[in-house]
Design goal:
The protein is mainly beta and 809 residues long. Helices cover 13% and strands 34% of the residues. The chain is built from 12 helices and 39 strands. The chain starts with 10 loop residues before the first strand and ends with a strand.
């Protein structure tokens, strides 16, 4: 098919349109300016009448009861009332109708009055393409008497006999989007310009169309709209053509029925023959070859009912539809465990260009732990207007991409981690064949384990406890044991199997854990008197064996202990689980920052010999590096700049995230905690003093940075400072925060003990500027320029002691 653009044409049995031209009455006759134009070359602007007769004017003129046959011989060609000087050139198209007896012709009637007419001239009607003025038809007209026109133009030599009618073959007007008629008086027998005058009538649009819908729905392209076309008169067969603009060829076509369209006729198109019956709708099946291409639609009326060829009139819509090919996006709204139904609940969406040809949708539950598929289900995609409206409209099925389903949980799945895969495939039987997958990042775990002690008390040799333990393993490990663990002796001293009771409150919070709705327990132990003063802890265990051994999953209950060493409540409480980083791990560096990251950056840019503070000068050097690597030249060091500087990627977060491991276990004594703190401090011996630094023993530290890591190892997490924020601007003197912290015990210098913190005033002021850890025997371990070392408690560099603070009571 050859691609062309066309619009609308003729209406059978009705006036085509009413053309209004300005009426100017002139005494002793009405005249207009006139020009002469060749129909092959002139444009509409070449001759614009300033005066014309309208139908209204003619209707108001006295008209005879019957119109006589034209007789040019009796026209007043030589009468003294004829005026050849005053310009007159006016005309009007009265009707353009389809011939009801001959569907292959169009009848045109109207009139043309001019003072340029001479006896013997021929009268031609010329039809032009309204878009480009290309001539479509030329022929002599049949003269019709118009005394009504002669009354308005009494002095024009051709007025009463200026009426005309013509029959034009429809096919001569094919493929014209609009038509413009020209009436010509001429001395040339072929209708070329030779004296006389032309009159250009207004352009008439002959066809129109609009697409209401042109979109992908599933594996179909939905099309609906309307095409009103006067050439429907002799081309009643309607076809829609799907055209590939990318490959510049037709893809397919189908015959369609036109249906009622009264709204089209009412809204400005009633002059077109089938305006009230021009609507259509169709579906085209999408094929793999169409993916990635831009498509458009042509509507065709044709004389050929078989395949839409023959005589035809096309309307090309401006709408385009780009079929994606490689886009694949998705999101999970739900991917969770429902312990009431023992199911994995799934809902979300997957918009995929390939879904238009891979029309079967499957969801696959994949076991990451065992590295194999667990189950798959065929699912229907549902409406997803929100997906299409929020950034994914360019994906073929974005408005129909949602899904929801569930998978049964089996005992074999317990303890494993799962992901979901969305698959579009051409295989409706089992989801294999040609397919494309979308792997979601979300994980669901069946190794969840949460527990808590509500009460843990001792009365002599009777120990009582209550709490709850929700564990996915309870699905397969049906025996629940509570184990009493003696921390002082490092061994179990008793166990009991318990019967769980309903726990709807726990289920409300931990509904993703199997058994959360039946997780509460109570238990009592009667112990031997030899254990009465030992430190105790409980372990909750689900086992598949009736003695609590075999396969099991357990939780050490760490929120309460018995007889365990602990500080008074007003002091910092000792942690018996690993302290976590406090602050933004992987933070950026800008002017005013200190710390290990700053030191490493300064070493890379050649300013590491200066004080360990990131300066404006450092920022300018970093900007040069950023520009060289195509990064935004901000002067701030982010992860990409860090890597561009040649620093190890893993250090970006490992420096921040380091918190000294606990070096005193649960059940340890006060002295154990003190020694744990001091052992951590010794890990830094010989490392350089570096301002604002508090990280792992691989690097240097300053005085308060050393103390913080030592406190972490002893189980103390001071909230007045943190190892991460220690390098931020405004944290240059965390020794002052520690000195003022009310959660440490203030003791006198004479009562100092191993493990106490020693604070120093700056000489001549009462400003804290240093902190060290007392070792006993008037020795401290400290970070003081140039390195971490053991020194006397007082020396010439820092000899004014401000006070002693105790960490462990």
């Amino acid at each position: 098919m050859q691609r062309k653009s066309h619009y609308k044409l003729f209406k059978a049995g009705k006036n085509w349109c009413t053309m209004m031209i300005t009426l100017v009455a002139v005494a002793a006759g009405v005249s207009v300016a006139s020009g002469t134009v060749h129909a092959d070359t002139a444009t509409a602007s070449a001759q614009t009448p300033t005066v014309a007769v309208t139908n209204e004017s003619v209707d108001k003129a006295a008209q005879p009861s019957d119109v006589k046959a034209p007789n040019l011989a009796t026209d007043k060609q030589q009468g003294t009332d004829i005026d050849f000087q005053t310009p007159v050139n006016a005309g009007y198209i009265d009707t353009v109708t389809a011939d009801t007896d001959n569907a292959n012709t169009i009848d045109v009637s109207g009139w043309h009055a001019t003072n340029q007419y001479k006896t013997g001239m021929d009268h031609y009607l010329i039809a032009l393409n309204g878009d480009n003025n290309q001539e479509l038809y030329r022929g002599k007209v049949e003269t019709v008497s118009r005394p009504d026109v002669q009354k308005v133009y009494p002095k024009a030599p051709i007025s009463e006999n200026g009426g005309f009618k013509a029959s034009i073959p429809v096919d001569r007007l094919n493929n014209a989007s609009s038509v413009r008629f020209v009436s010509r008086y001429t001395n040339d027998a072929n209708g070329e310009i030779n004296g006389g005058a032309d009159f250009w009538y207004p352009t008439i649009q002959t066809k129109a169309g609009y697409l209401d819908n042109f979109k992908v729905n599933g594996n179909n392209i939905e099309v609906s709209g309307w095409h009103a076309d006067d050439q429907f008169v002799n081309k009643p067969n309607h076809f829609l053509i799907l055209f590939d603009k990318t490959k510049n060829k037709e893809i397919t076509r189908q015959a369609v029925k036109t249906v009622a369209s009264s709204d089209v006729a009412r809204n400005g198109y009633n002059e077109i023959v089938n305006a009230d019956h021009s609507r259509f709708s169709a579906n085209f099946t999408i094929t793999p070859a169409m993916l990635g291409d831009e498509l458009t639609i042509a509507s065709r009326y044709s004389s050929d009912a078989k395949n839409g060829e023959g005589n035809l009139s096309d309307y090309w819509f401006n709408n385009s539809l780009k079929l994606g090919k490689d886009k694949n996006a998705g999101y999970l709204d739900q991917f969770r465990i429902d312990n009431k139904s023992n199911k994995v609940i799934v809902s979300g969406w997957n918009a995929n260009d390939q879904s238009t040809v891979l029309t079967n949708h499957y969801l696959i539950l994949f076991d990451k732990t065992a590295n194999h598929e667990v189950a798959r289900q065929a699912v229907k995609t549902l409406a997803s207007v929100d997906v299409a409206q929020n950034g994914f409209a360019d994906v073929n099925n974005a408005d129909h991409a949602r899904f929801t389903t569930s998978f049964d949980i089996t005992p074999a799945m317990v303890g494993h981690q799962f992901v979901l895969v969305s698959r579009y495939t051409d295989d409706a039987k089992n989801g294999e064949g040609n397919h494309i997958d979308y792997w979601y990042n979300n994980n669901v775990n069946l190794n969840n384990n949460q527990a808590w002690l509500d009460h843990f008390t001792q009365n002599g040799t009777t120990i009582s406890a209550s709490g709850w333990h929700a564990d996915d393993a309870s699905m397969i490990d049906s025996h629940h044991f509570i184990i009493l663990w003696d921390l002082s002796k490092g061994r179990e001293i008793a166990r009991k199997e318990v019967t769980n009771v309903a726990s709807p409150d726990i289920n409300n919070v931990y509904g993703n854990i199997l058994g959360a709705n039946n997780a509460r327990f109570t238990v009592d132990f009667n112990i031997d008197g030899q254990y009465a003063h030992d430190a105790m802890q409980l372990v909750s265990r689900y086992s598949n064996a009736d003695n609590g051994e075999g396969n099991y999953s357990q939780s050490w209950l760490t929120n309460q202990y018995l007889n365990l060493y602990q500080n008074p409540s007003w002091m910092y409480q000792i942690n018996y689980s690993q302290i976590q980083p406090s602050g933004p791990v992987g933070h950026n560096i800008g002017p005013g920052y200190e710390g290990i990251k700053t030191q490493l950056v300064k070493d890379r840019i050649g300013t590491g010999y200066q004080h360990n503070t990131y300066t404006t000068a450092d920022a300018y050097r970093v900007m040069s590096v950023q520009r060289a690597h195509g990064l935004p030249a901000t002067g701030w060091v982010d992860y990409n700049t860090w890597v561009a500087l040649g620093l190890p990627a893993d250090q970006w977060t490992s420096i921040d995230s380091y918190v000294a491991p606990l070096r005193a276990s649960a059940g340890a004594s006060r002295q154990d905690h003190i020694e744990a703190m001091i052992r951590q401090a010794y890990q830094y011996m010989g490392k350089p003093w570096l301002a604002g630094c508090s990280s792992s023993p691989a690097y240097g530290v300053d005085c308060s940075g050393l103390v913080m890591q030592a406190l972490y190892a002893g189980g103390i997490n001071p909230t007045s400072c943190s190892s991460i924020y220690h390098g931020f601007p405004g944290n240059e003197w965390n020794s002052r925060n520690l000195f003022a912290d009310p959660h440490f015990m203030n003791v006198s210098y004479n009562d100092r003990q191993r493990g106490d913190l020693v604070f120093y005033y700056q000489p001549g002021t009462h400003t804290i500027w240093h902190v060290a850890i007392y070792l006993g025997n008037n020795q401290v371990i400290e970070s003081w320029p140039p390195r971490v070392m053991v020194q006397p408690i007082v020396n010439v560099q820092r000899n004014v002691i401000a006070g002693i603070r105790r960490v462990f009571a």
